[in-house]
Amino acid sequence: MGSVRARAAAGATVVVAVALVAAGTAVLLVLWSNLRDQAGLQAEVAAREVATQIATGTAYDGLDLPDGDDHPVVVLDDDGRVLAAGDEVRAVDGKTVGPSKRGSAPPQDDDEDEDDDGGGPRPGEVDDDAHYRDGTANVDGKVADYRFASVEAKDTGGATATVRAGSALAPERNTVGTVRTAMLTGLPLLLLVVAGVTWLVTRRALRPVEGIRSEMAAITASTDLSRRVPVPAAQDEIGRLARTTNETLTALESSVERQRRFVADASHELRSPIASLRTQLEVGVAHPELLDVPGAVEDTVRLQRLAADLLLLARLDAGERPAERRIDLAALVREEGSQRVGDRIPVRLGDLGNVEVAGSRGQLGRVLGNLLDNAQRNAASAVRVAVVREGEWAVLRVDDDGPGVPEGERERIFERFVRLDDARARDDGGAGLGLAIARDVAVRHGGSLAVREGSVFELRLPVPRRDT
Question: What's the pTM value of the predicted model, to 2 decimals?
Answer without folding.
Answer: 0.51
